[in-house]
Amino acid sequence: MVRRPDSTSNSASVQNVPPQATVPLYPLLLRLNGRLALVVGGGRVGQHKALGLLAGGARVRLVCREQAPPQMRCAGLQWLCEEYRAEHLDGVSLAFAAATPEVNARLAADARARNLWVNDASDPESSDLFVPAVLRRGPVTVAVGSAGLAPAFSAWLRDRLETILEPELGDYASLLAEIRPLLRQRLPPASRPAAWEKLCANQWLEMLRREGPDFVRAALLQCLAEFICDTEGNPECLPSDPT
Question: Which of 124, 138, 121 is nearest to 175 (CA)?
Answer without folding.
Answer: 138
